[in-house]
Specification:
The complex is a heterodimer of chains A (87) and B (399). Chain A is mainly α. Chain A has a single domain (4-83), classed as ACP-like (Non-ribosomal Peptide Synthetase Peptidyl Carrier Protein, Chain A, Orthogonal Bundle), CATH 1.10.1200.10. Helices cover 52% and strands 0% of the residues of chain A. In chain A, α1 (4-18) packs across α2 (40-54) and α1 crosses α3 (69-83). Chain B folds into 2 domains: 15-47 and 295-395, Aspartate Aminotransferase, domain 1 (Alpha-Beta Complex), CATH 3.90.1150; 59-293, Aspartate Aminotransferase, domain 2 (3-Layer(aba) Sandwich). In chain B, β2 and β3 (43-47) form a beta hairpin. In chain B, α12 runs parallel beside α14 (376-390). Classes of the chains: A mainly alpha (87), B alpha/beta (399). The interface between A and B is medium-sized, with 19 and 18 residues.
């Protein structure tokens, strides 16, 4: 069972690392590109980190409607529920 | 909302690179004098920002073949092969490519991008899983998106990471498509193909290798990385382009199973694209013969690659992981990269400026490409241009 809060916390932790150089505050509703200055490739790298942390296969296709950490959590939880039944 | 408002951030970034000087993303080579010399405005430059690895763009035989095709068959085919028919040259080239690779099936496409789009999108259906190297070319990502497959990335050139992700997939791994490149276009590094093949043998999957930058460059007869490493039998499909070593335009796929032929009827980018022009096909057929008959071109290319790589490394520049016809030089920030690129042109050398995300790992680099047609004097002149800029104020603030 994977809890939403655990996923959210890890996403924010990763983002703090990815944006450390730019020293931008990371919030649940920060826009990954506009506010945090992430390139699309960095967002895909973030997904790889999530796959490894939770030992799951998560296709990058889930990123299509993701703009914020909250969106990413939503997309991830929906995907996990549909494909892994772990939520 | 305006039609282009969604691009405002991109437009602002690009405007910052205009500032009255040459634009690295809109360079006009005003005159092309040879395979290695051109002019940008009034400045004569050594062309080291191409993919003309074997230097065949001015090959007399290829030009004569193209001219003859132009006269005999006209300027264009004006339609797709499916709807309007193939020309004899298309079919002949496919037979020659199949023979060159010693494979039963070859399909010609109108560009290298379309070759990737055509083959991969047809196979990467929504039910398919694609495992691709994170640094794969945009055409491969686009092809997977067009096909609708589930896309799983693995860390660049990390076979252990690929294996980890395949294990996670369980039974799905047996039918997954694994896609890598031969030589990667930005850093000039090569895929660990032997390790990947070993994983494929154990866990299953189908292996596609894009040899766009390694065809004509690597392998005993120029077939690419898979040939160089002796693993061709384990590669299901090799993808390639005519716009680099073959010095024209177009693309191809060669398969180890005649079953690949069915993709002609399932690949929208194949069905709905105009076929390559007769002159392009004729020059490619000529260049393919040259590649088969002139291995000394590859030797000269690698001599030049080592000469440039060693020369730049000796100056203290941070270059790629090993010598390759693609020699990247890491240059601090985007702004420094821009100034450095312009200064190189002032010193008579044209290369490519590559910014993230096109360049991996957030780095800015200038990408030098070596040709078999470069003379030793031209390679030395390139090194001298870099030497002149080594202690300039452009690089001062680089840590």
């Amino acid at each position: 069972m994977l809890k939403r809060e655990v996923v959210t916390d890890y996403i924010l932790e990763c983002l703090s690392g990815l944006t450390a150089e730019k020293q931008r505050p990371v919030g649940l509703h920060s826009n990954l590109i506009e506010d945090l200055g992430l390139e699309s490739i960095k967002i895909m790298d973030l997904l790889m980190m999530l796959e490894d942390q939770f030992d799951l296969s998560i296709p990058i296709n889930i990123l299509i409607d993701v703009s914020t950490p909250a969106d990413l959590t939503d997309a991830l939880m929906i995907y996990l529920e549909e494909h892994h039944g772990v939520v | 909302m305006g039609l282009y408002d969604g691009f405002s951030r991109l437009a602002q970034e690009r405007e910052a690179f205009q500032d009255g000087g040459l634009n690295p993303f809109g360079t006009c080579i005003d005159e092309v004098h040879s395979a290695t010399q051109g002019s940008i405005g009034n400045r004569r430059v050594i062309l080291a920002g191409t993919n003309n690895y074997l230097g065949l763009t001015f090959d007399p035989q290829a030009i004569a073949a193209a001219q003859a095709a132009l006269v005999e068959q006209g300027t264009g085919t004006t339609g797709s092969r499916m709807a309007n028919g193939s020309y004899g040259g298309h079919v002949a080239l496919e037979q020659e490519l199949a023979a060159f690779f010693e494979r039963p099936s070859a399909i010609v496409f109108s560009t290298g991008y379309v070759a990737n789009l055509g083959i991969i999108s047809a196979l990467a259906t929504p039910k398919a899983v694609v495992l691709l190297d994170a640094d794969c070319h945009a055409s491969i990502y686009d092809a997977c998106a067009l096909g609708g497959a589930q896309i799983i990335r693995f860390r660049h050139n990390d076979a252990a990471d690929l294996e980890r992700r395949m294990v996670r997939l369980g039974e799905q791994a047996k039918d997954a498509l694994i896609i890598v490149e031969g030589i990667y276009s930005m850093l000039g590094d090569v895929a660990p193909l032997q390790d990947i093949v070993e994983i494929k043998r154990r866990l299953g999957g189908y292996l596609l290798v894009d040899e766009a930058h390694s065809f004509g460059v690597m392998g005993q007869t120029g077939r690419g990385l898979a040939q160089a490493l002796g693993v061709e039998q384990d590669v299901d499909i090799i993808l390639g382009t005519f716009s680099k070593s073959l010095a024209a335009i177009g693309g191809f796929a060669v398969g180890n199973d005649r079953g690949m032929e069915v993709l002609r009827y399932a690949s929208r980018p194949y069905i709905f694209t105009a076929s390559p022009s007769p002159s392009a096909i004729a020059s490619v057929r000529s260049a393919l013969q040259t590649i088969a008959q002139a291995p000394e071109l590859r030797d000269k290319l690698w001599q030049n690659a080592h000469r440039l790589y060693n020369g730049l490394a000796a100056l203290g520049y941070q270059v790629g992981p090993h010598a390759s016809p693609v020699v990247p030089v890491m240059i601090g920030t985007k702004e420094q990269g821009m100034r450095f690129w312009r200064a190189l042109i002032e010193h008579g050398v044209y290369v490519n400026l590559v910014l993230p995300p096109a360049a991996p790992a957030g780095i800015t680099l200038v990408r030098c490409s070596v040709s078999a047609a470069h003379s030793e004097q031209e390679i030395d002149a390139m090194v001298e241009a870099f030497a002149a800029l080594r202690d300039s104020d452009i690089l001062e603030s680089v840590a």
